[in-house]
Each structure stands twice: as C-alpha cells, then as structure tokens.
Amino acid sequence: MELQSWIWLLVGLSFTLYIAIAIWSRAGDTKEFYIAGRGVPPIANGMATAADWMSAASFISMAGIISFIGYDGSVYLMGWTGGYVLLALLLAPYLRKFGKFTVPDFIGERYYSSTARLVAIFCALIVSFTYVAGQMRGVGVVFSRYLEVDINTGVFIGMAIVLFYAVLGGMKGITYTQVAQYCVLIFAFLIPAIFISFLSTGWVIPQIGFGSTDQNGMYLLDKLNSLHNELGFNNYTSGSKSILDMLLITLALMVGTAGLPHVIVRFFTVKKVSDARKSAGWALLFIAILYTTAPAIAVFARINLIETTNNKTYSNMPTWFKKWEETGLIEFTDKNNDQIIQYSADANKNELIIDRDIMVLANPEIAQLPNWVIALLAAGALAAALSTAAGLLLVISSSISHDLIKGIIYPKVNEKQELVAARISSFVAVMLAGYFGINPPGFVAATVALAFGLAAASFFPAIVMGIFSLKMNKEGAICGMIAGMSLMLVYMLKFKFGWFGGGNSSQWWFGISPEGFGSIAMLFNFLISIIVSKFTKKVPIEVQRLVLEIRKP
Amino acid sequence: MEKKNSNKNDYWKSNIKYVTILLSVWFTVSYGFGIILVEQLNQFQIGGFPLGFWFSQQGSIYVFVILIFLYIYLMNKLDKKFK
Questions:
Q1: Which long-range contacts (CB under 8 A, 24 or more apart) does A531-534 make?
Q2: CA-nearest residue of chain A to B17?
Q3: How far apart are the C-alpha atoms of A147 and A378, rounded to whole Å?
Q4: Nearest to A318 by CA among A300, A330, A302
Q5: B42 to chain A, minimum CA–CA distance in Å?
Q6: pTM of the model
Q7: Between chains, do B11 and A553 touch, taking CB under 8 Å as contact?
Q8: Which among A254, A437, A475, B46 counts the fewest CB atoms within 10 Å?
C-alpha cells in the first residue's frame, strides 16, 4: 500500500477512536467536567498523565536535541522525569486529600484569600497559554509534513477534534482519549527504535543496545566519540555546560514539572488518596519507557547520519535524504564544489545543516522500515500534540468558569450555568489556541522554558509550604508568588527578548542561563514568603486545622 | 483523645522520615551521580556506558520509578497501621 494511504488510514482510524471515546464518556455535571467524577482507576490515570505530559516536543524534538548535544541533553531527561518524584512525595496525595477541583482552589482556601486565588489563576492562565500555542502549531506541522496539506488546514483539523472531545467530554472525555493516545504514541515511538537497535547492535531492547557493540565489536558510544573527535565536535558522553548551570536547569525543570497545573489536576481525578500516589508511580513508569528510549534513538540516529552522509558523494544519497531536503529540514551547500558532503563542527567548512526533528521523523526511512511504521509515527506525533493540548485547554476553561466566575465574580452560579460556562470557556480557549497556532508568536520556543520557570517560581513553593508549614500565612504566600514570578519574568524578558537593555550569555548573573533561572526565582519565592510571614499576622486556627486534616491518613 | 493525637503525630513523623530518606536518594542519583560526580564516575564502565553518563541518561530515571513505588508500598503499610 502507498505511504499516503497508510497515513490517512492510521490517522483516520485513531481520530475515529478518539471521537468514539468522547461520545461514550461525555460529561453530565461539573464534577465530571472538571475531575472526571473522581472515578479514574490509577493505571488509566497514569497513562492519561503520561500522554498529557508528553507533548509534541517530547515526541518529535527531544531525541533530536540529545542527539546533537549528547551529555548536555541529560538535563531534559532527568528534569522532566525527576519532577514526578516530587509530585508523588510532596504534592499529589495532599492535594487529592484536600478534595477540590483546581490548583487555585487550593491556593485560595489554604491562604484564605481571593487575592491569592486571583494570583494563582493568573499564573495558571499564563503557564497554560504559552504551552498550548506550541501544541496547536505542532499539530499543524505534523499534518503538513505527512499529509501534504497546508499548516493552517492542519491546525483547523486539530482544533475541530480537540473542540469536539474537550467541550463535550470535559475531563472525563479527555482522560479516556488520553489513555488511547498514550497507547498510540508509545507504540509509534518504540517500534522504529526496536528495529533500529536490532539492526545496529543485534539487541531488541534499545536501552541495552546503545551501550553495546556494532558488527565490528566496537562499543557504539566509543565509536560515536571518535567520530565526534574526527569532525571536531566535543565528546558525545561529556558535557560543555558548567556544573552549576546543569544543576539549576535540571532543578528548574523538575520543580516546574511538579508545579504545572495541567499535571497536578490529573491527581484530582482518582477515588482515594492512595490512588493519587499510585497514579504518580504509573505515570512515571509510562513516561520512563519513552524517556529511556529517546537517548538510545539519539545515539543510533547520530551514528547513522554521520556514517551515511559525511565524505560521501551527494548524488549517491538515499531517497530519504532527497525527500527531507525538499522540506528544508536537511540542507546541503557544496562550499568547495567537490560534490562530496563534508560534515564538520567548523562552521566555515561544514556543508550540511540538519534540523533536529529529523532524528525521529526520518528514523523509519533511514532504517528502511515498511510504510505502515512511518504512518504510525505520524499518528503518534498527532496523539502526543493533541493529548497535551486538550489537558491544557481544560485547565484554561476551569480557571475561567470555576475559579474566576464561581470563585470570585459570581459565586451564586448554579450547577447547570457553571457547566455551560465551562463549555463556553473551553470553546473560546480552543479558538484562541488555534489563533496562536496559525499566527505563532515568534517566542513560542523560548516560552516553553518560561512556562517551566514560572510554574517553578510561583506554584511549587506556595503549595509545598501550604502543606508542610502551619505558619505560612496569606501575606507571605502572595508576596512570595508575586516576587518569584516577577523576578523570573524580568530575567526572561531581559535575556530572551532583549527588554531592559537586553544582554548576552556573558552578562548572565553568575553565569546562570534563563532556563536555569527558574531555580533561583523559586528560592527567592521561598525566602520572601518566609521573611514576610515572620512579620505579619498568624494563620487563623481553622486554616491550621485544615492543614492538619490533609496530613491525616 | 490524647492517644489519637499522638497517633496522628506518629503517622506524620514516619511520613516525613520516609520522604526525607527517599528524596536524599533522589538527589544523590541525579544531581550527585548524574552531574556533580559525573567525570569521576565516567572512569568506570558498565558495558559500553561510561558510568556517570549512564546515570544521567538512564540510571537516574530507573531509580526515580523505583523510589515512587517504594513510597507507595511504605505509605500503604503505614496507612494500615494507623487505620
């Protein structure tokens, strides 16, 4: 069967499945709309969390990034998994025990203040919007690459699907489609990895394969290091970032993960407190399957790429090379006019520019796998982008209908009206996300780091101290959140967008990159909160009781 | 009433103890082995992996998963004891 027919078939089938699930699991009341009626089993919740969490970037770009920066890429691997340990041990069980619908709910009640709730709503909206724009764009890009439609048409198709199941099904619909999406995406990620591992090393498990030997008995990593040395790159297995920056980036990503509202809210959907812990365990296990495979793909793809292209005649390149050249993801400029491709770390000599996304997208073709595997990869990438977009849209709509309208503006709203408001706000949110997908603000890439930094600098300290300290009062928490967030914004705007006089990497404070600065902003939040709380009124006795209550078994 | 109160306290104290121990392991495998000590550990090999590199791209993630399941096990036991 033709590749195009395979792609239409698999993408069509998977979309039909998502819509069928949405119709079967549509939400009847607000409890079902916000938290799936609290009836999600832990394993299903683990899969949904994993799909929610792993975005188009995890699926398409991460292995490629690691492939180009080697050891330095470890910050993403550790940072985006280690946060789940914090979630399971410090946040999820207590937030579930608290038993409300959203993160601003917790902040508002624990800090007995609508101002605190408002600050939390503001943070949740900023974090979720910066994230969702990238996802809708991802849907468009995948459609345009594989199905040869316009990027905008792709965004519209994605919007229509998400609209259907998010507006109709709410959290319940989203949860069960995410379970299906996890299965699609993990299958699509693993199949090519297993094939390639077997072809390069004889091992079917990629995690073992990339630490073993090729046909000539040479360890793959040693071979890659020597290839890198020949071409003038750093050793693949050692880094170029400073230890301090590595530490801070990893910490910011971990703490940011634990503070992301669309991840936290998933733990509200289970029946019991112990199920919240179990969900976190399953979620990390399901995520780890992809995250431990990605560095293996990175190594196989890097070696294949260098060996296939470097010092080889251009006219002899395989068909995938020509195909991806047309999309602009590979560029060859014959600087010395010898018809031979020279790949080098030296920008003046280098003739080959490779987009990092190609490492995953072209993988099946490089390994000459059958057409259905390539089609599966397209369905998997779409599943990754759609599942994350839907989770974010739910946070946006519940922030508006539940936290803002019911919590602050018009508390007398009844159940039916609130459900209508929830559906309208998710409709508006999809439209806005689609708009950003079609007219992407130039800062999308930079804002993902911003989203993590903001989540780390605002939510994480406020929630952790809300649970583990009886003394943290509203003044402390509000000042801390505002201080942490402002510091993060200023640093980001200064060094990423050139505001406040701008600056380059040599002017970073103490050599800390904007990606790692979330850790500093988080510490600043803790510090300000503690100082302010020492000089302001004590926490009311009934709130202290509430905190003691959520600590009970 | 008093007995109940001290029970609650014991539950919380054991919980804090578990969290502290598990988080120190969490810190050691990722920040310790994966970043701070990576050069020293890279002098050892397991299979084709330099050890520090393995911890940063594989080992730490496996340990994270184990840590959460260990916490689930410990807390379920603790919950039973205080029911």
A1: A531/A476, A532/A475, A532/A476, A532/A479, A532/A480, A533/A471, A533/A472, A533/A473, A533/A475, A533/A476, A533/A477
A2: A89
A3: 9
A4: A330
A5: 9
A6: 0.91
A7: yes
A8: B46
Closest residue of B to A206, CA-based?
B58
Mean pLDDT of chain A: 87
Chain A residues within 8 A of B11 when measuring between CB atoms: 551-553
Long-range contacts of A153-157 (CB under 8 A, 24+ apart): A155/A434, A155/A437, A155/A438, A156/A434
Residue A63, CA atoms < 13 Å, CB-side half-sphere: 29
Decide if B35 and A211 are in contact by the 8 Å CB cutoff.
no
Q: CA–CA separation, A421 vs A371, rounded Å?
A: 45
Determine, for residues A212 and B30 on separate chains, whether the beta-carbon distance falls below 8 Å. no
Q: Which amino acid is at A257?
A: T
Cα A535 from chain centroid (whole Å): 39
| Nearest-angstrom CA–CA distance, A287 and A267 | 16
Q: State mean pLDDT over A28-49.
A: 85
> Any CB–CB contact under 8 A between B51 and chain A?
no
Within 8 A by CB and 6+ apart from A551, the residues are A94, A467, B8, B11, B12, B15
Q: How far apart are CA A278 and CA A213, in angstroms?
A: 38
Chain B residues lying within 8 Å of A237, measured CB to CB: 42, 50, 53
- A280/B68 CB distance under 8 A: yes
Strands A330-332 and A340-341: unpaired
pLDDT tens profile A211-261 = 888 888 889 889 999 899 888 888 888 888 889 999 999 999 999 999 888
CA distance A372 to A8: 11
What pLDDT, in 10s, does the model give residues A51-91?
A: 999 988 788 888 888 998 899 999 999 999 999 999 999 99
DSSP letters for A96-164 = HHHT-SSHHHHHHHHTT-HHHHHHHHHHHHHHHHHHHHHHHHHHHHHHHHHH---HHHHHHHHHHHHHH
Of A89, A211, A274, the CB nearest to B23: A89
pLDDT in tens, B10-39: 889 999 999 999 999 999 999 999 999 999
Inter-chain residue contact A552 with B26, CB threshold 8 Å: no
Q: In terms of C-beta distances under 8 Å and separation of at least 24 residues, what long-range contacts does A437-445 make, across chains too? A: A437/A133, A437/A135, A437/A136, A437/A137, A437/A139, A437/A140, A437/A155, A437/A158, A437/A159, A438/A140, A438/A151, A438/A152, A438/A155, A440/A133, A440/A134, A440/A137, A441/A133, A443/A496, A443/A497, A444/A130, A444/A133, A444/A134, A444/A137, A445/A134
Contact A274 B76 (CB under 8 A): yes
DSSP A340: E
What is the least distance, in Å, from the CA of B2 to any CA of chain A? 15
Interface test with chain A among B36, B39, B64, by most A beta carbons within 10 Å: B64
**Nearest CA distance, A220 vs chain B (angstrom):** 7
Q: Rounded to whole angstroms, how far apart are CA atoms A478 and A117?
A: 9
The residues spanned by each domain of chain B are 2-81
Q: What is the token pair recorded at A125?
A: 């909206």
* Backbone φ and ψ of A213, nearest 5°: -110, 160
A499: closest CA of chain B, how far (Å):
32
